[in-house]
Design goal:
Mean pLDDT: 83
Helix content: 55-70%
Radius of gyration: 33 Å
Strand content: under 5%
Number of helices: 13
Low-confidence stretches: 1-6, 337-343
Distance between the termini: 85 Å
Number of strands: 2
Structural class: mainly alpha
Length: 343
């Protein structure tokens, strides 16, 4: 009786409670974000990004405008002949940029002549031949050269490089290759050769980094296909990798040339700073960046200051064109190819 009063469960299967069915047609789910209240934030963000991009273009245009305006007196006085005159006489207000153009071109080309083989060799070793445990540290140390301030390179060149050139390298070059006319004169250590060597050291990390990037962009299947045809490792690197990456390598070289053209402090400290054109690499020289750094604070006359600004305008335009060409060449190789590593 007690159990029946308490209502004990009946033996057998028990009914299962069904979950309630919700009619979704009567209502819509609430969105996570209410975009109608935040649409104006998207417009503000788009406008801010557009303003950032336009600021860069406006800054470049402002620099060009100021350089052209401040060099107007030199343009009116000398015209295009300014770039073909060799006179640089602030006392008599006679100016010509040819010695500086010559010094810039010679020192930069000498730097590339020394840096490009070393840079490509370092890139090939790191990308294709280096063990995995050494690849990271070696790549880091190579790129670390680009982070060293140029004045440190200049001090190192004065106290280490110049004595070595004066006592050992330049006398040897004078005895063996003096007949070429490129290594004649008194070996002072300071001159065009020292400037080219220090520029080469500063250019190596740039060219090496770009070369490694474009070599990494070459598909691994390209390497495997060349090896499957029976090629040696050197033939695989030469035909399967370097040939496909040559446009990007040239772009990296031109990008390094842009760095060499605009370098100032390190070159100023070792080139000798004499506005003359000499065939020998032992002779001192001058570059466009060096003359601006040395004489801008001493320019008292309007024509003197205008001539220096015109030199800066020429250097700025040449550097911009060189960097644009380099970026286009690198892009022609790496476009649409994701970076990848291989063992």
């Amino acid at each position: 009786m007690a159990n029946q009063a308490l209502g004990s469960p009946r033996p057998g299967p028990q009914p299962v409670m069904k979950p309630p069915v919700v009619d979704v047609s009567k209502g819509q789910a609430e969105p996570i974000l209410t975009t109608r209240y935040h649409a104006w934030l998207d417009d503000v963000f788009s406008f801010a990004m557009l303003a950032c991009g336009l600021c860069v273009l406006a800054l470049v245009g402002l620099i060009i405008y100021e350089l052209i305006e401040k060099s107007g007196a030199s343009w009116r006085a000398f015209g295009v002949k300014f770039f073909f005159r060799s006179d640089w006489d602030p006392v008599n207000d006679q100016y010509g940029a040819l010695p500086f153009i010559y010094g810039t071109i010679v020192s930069s080309l000498l730097a590339l002549l020394l840096a490009v083989p070393l840079s490509v060799g370092v890139a090939v070793f790191i990308t294709e031949m280096c063990p995995r445990w050494l690849r990271g540290p070696l790549a880091f140390l190579t790129e670390l050269l680009a982070a060293i301030p140029s004045v440190i390179y200049g001090l190192w060149a004065i106290f280490v490089l110049v004595p070595i050139l004066r006592e050992d390298v330049e006398p040897f070059l004078g005895k063996t290759l003096g007949w070429t006319g490129l290594f004649t004169g008194t070996p002072f250590g300071i001159g065009m050769l020292a400037a080219g060597i220090i520029l080469a050291i500063m250019v190596v990390p740039i060219v090496s980094s770009i070369t490694r990037e474009v070599m990494t962009a070459v598909p691994s299947t390209q390497r495997e296909a060349v090896l499957a045809l029976g090629a040696t490792r050197w033939e695989m690197i030469r035909t399967g990798v370097l040939r496909n990456a040559r446009a990007g390598i040239v772009g990296g070289v031109i990008l390094g040339l842009g760095r060499a053209l605009g370098e100032t402090m390190a070159v100023t400290m070792v080139i000798g700073n004499r506005p003359e054109i000499a065939k020998s690499l032992f002779a001192p020289g001058y570059t466009m960046a060096s003359v601006i750094a040395n004489e801008f604070s001493e320019a008292t006359g309007d024509l003197y200051l205008s001539a220096l600004v015109e030199v800066g305008l020429a250097l700025f335009l040449v550097t911009i064109v060189v960097n644009i060409l380099a970026q286009l060449m690198v892009w022609s190789v790496t476009r649409g190819v994701p970076a990848r590593g291989h063992g």
